[in-house]
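Students often ask why inverse folding is considered easier than folding. One informal answer: many sequences map to the same fold, so there is more than one right answer. In these notes we will look at a single instance of the problem. The structure comes first.
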């Protein structure tokens, strides 16, 4: 189960991320609305755990035009009027701080089961097809087998196909929070992925934008 935790309090974010990880829940941590939106463009989540008081605005604004991912609001803004407002704004559940971690995880699991039943749109670019339900790729119906990090990298690029994806966003999509990254960590993965796409006649290629990031675009016909 993959979750996006949107929480600006550094200590609480770290403690909660660790607690959910111990319960076999993969956690991506965003500290602002802007970071959360970037994560949502880079990958699919089973559930979003969302604080309201964020440095760049009310967390509920993230619900506007979002994909149909279940959202649990976890906030210090309590009271029935606040809960009603949150639910009417599009949240699927509303939980007040302080909270019990076991209860929170139980609610997350319930929401993730709902997420598993939601229809997801298949995305095609060039000859490449992405199946979000299984987070897998195929070319002309044949599965495209690649190592996990290459798959995560390709998913992140495909979700912003035709746009330059900054280095830091790709690193967030591919690596865990506790991975130690060197300056040369990403280029080898990109190089191997580029070669794999050519071998598989995917009809797409990756161009490095020096000092900025990478661009996935359709390959020119030879």
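Output (designed amino acids):
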């Amino acid at each position: 189960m993959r979750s996006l935790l949107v929480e600006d309090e550094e200590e609480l974010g770290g403690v909660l991320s660790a607690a959910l990880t111990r319960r076999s829940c993969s956690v991506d941590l965003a500290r602002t609305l802007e970071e959360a939106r970037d994560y949502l463009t880079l990958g699919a989540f089973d559930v979003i755990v969302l604080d309201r008081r964020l440095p760049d605005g009310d967390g509920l604004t993230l619900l506007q035009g979002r994909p149909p991912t279940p959202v649990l609001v976890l906030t210090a803004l309590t009271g029935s009027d606040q809960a009603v407002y949150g639910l009417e704004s599009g949240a699927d559940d509303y939980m007040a701080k302080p909270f019990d971690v076991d209860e929170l995880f139980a609610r997350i699991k319930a929401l993730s089961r709902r997420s598993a039943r939601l229809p997801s749109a298949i995305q095609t670019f060039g000859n490449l097809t992405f199946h979000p339900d299984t987070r897998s790729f195929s070319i002309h119906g044949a599965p495209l087998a690649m190592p996990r990090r290459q798959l995560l990298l390709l998913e992140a690029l495909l979700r912003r196909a035709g746009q330059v994806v900054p280095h830091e966003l790709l690193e967030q999509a591919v690596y865990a929070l506790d991975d130690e990254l060197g300056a040369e960590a990403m280029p080898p993965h990109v190089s191997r992925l580029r070669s794999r796409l050519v071998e598989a006649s995917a009809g797409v290629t990756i161009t490095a934008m020096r000092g900025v990031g990478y661009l996935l675009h359709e390959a020119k016909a030879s």
